[in-house]
Amino acid sequence: GQSLEQPSEVTAVEGAIVQINCTYQTSGFYGLSWYQQHDGGAPTFLSYNALDGLEETGRFSSFLSRSDSYGYLLLQELQMKDSASYFCAVAHTGGFKTIFGAGTRLFVKA
Amino acid sequence: NAGVTQTPKFRVLKTGQSMTLLCAQDMNHEYMYWYRQDPGMGLRLIHYSVGEGTTAKGEVPDGYNVSRLKKQNFLLGLESAAPSQTSVYFCASSYSKLDRGQLEKLFFGSGTQLSVL
Predict the structure, then answer these.
(1) Tag placement on chain B: N or C end, fewer CB within 10 Å?
(2) Which residue of A has its CA nearest to B56?
(3) Quick one: which of B81, B82, B72, B44 has its CA closest to B60?
(4) What is d(CA A90, CA A69) in angstroms, rounded to the nearest whole number?
(5) How far apart are CA B74 and CA B76, in angstroms?
(6) Which residues are CB-contacts of A19 (< 8 A; sequence separation ≥ 6)?
(7) DSSP letter at B70?
(8) Of B105, B84, B81, which Cα lies nearest the Cα of B94?
């Protein structure tokens, strides 16, 4: 089968750094993506890792290790507006369908 | 630049009624998807399409049908609605498969809140 595991909730303080982990089990995929979703809104694309290593986009960084079936999203200099749900996702090589994890709810406190 | 547009935004159905959700994208994307989102369960793929005239089943296809008669439109149908189909439905699209790096970047519509009583 195929599945992605994420923590259900993470709480952090404004200005801090937080890491959201994603472990997966899948037979084959092109890469690992991350999406952000605010309450009542649509998911929006944050980052994508096709290769192992770290990808940086402003305050957000994402990491992938295919050998460990593991990835993470790193958010730096947390702001209150970062309070949202974050989803990891993989696009499978068989059929090009994109499957999402259950999501991690991030609470940023003042 | 509209992106991905879903209609309607809200709908209430009675058990057994049918309806069609419409998704339209103006980005010339090859791939289109229908997801449902329930509390605590993330986004689950219902059906998807890799091009005009093609459709395929996702993780939770039962009770739904889809059609992709035109490249820009992807329709999701419920033939006989059930309370278990109460959910928020999202349509998404992504770039051509020719560029693997862009394949996984999905663009989402604003969602449809469906309640089945």
Answers:
(1) N
(2) A95
(3) B44
(4) 11
(5) 7
(6) A72, A73, A74, A75
(7) S
(8) B105
Query: What confidence tens digit (pLDDT) does each residue in B44-98 have?
Result: 999 999 899 999 999 999 999 999 999 999 999 999 999 999 999 999 999 865 4
B42 neighbourhood in chain A, CB within 8 Å:
87, 100-103
* Tokens 């096709």 sit on residue: A50
Could you give the angle at the alpha carbon of B73 between the alpha carbons of B25 and A102, nearest 5°? 70
From chain A, pick out residues whose CB is under 8 angstroms from the CB of B48: 95-98
Q: H or E stretch including B101?
A: helix B100-103
The one-letter code for the residue type at A61 is S
Q: Is B60 on the interface with A (CB under 8 A)?
A: no
Which residues of chain A make contact with B88, given a CB cutoff of 8 A? Answer: none
Residue A66 to residue A107: CA distance in whole angstroms: 29
At A100, list the tokens. 């999402």
Give the closest-approach CA distance of A101 to chain B in angstroms.
Answer: 6
User: Which residues of B are less than 8 Å from A90 in CB distance?
Assistant: 104
Partners of residue A45 on adjacent β-strands:
A35
The A residues from 9 to 48 touching B (CB cutoff 8 Å) are 30-31, 33, 35, 41-45, 48
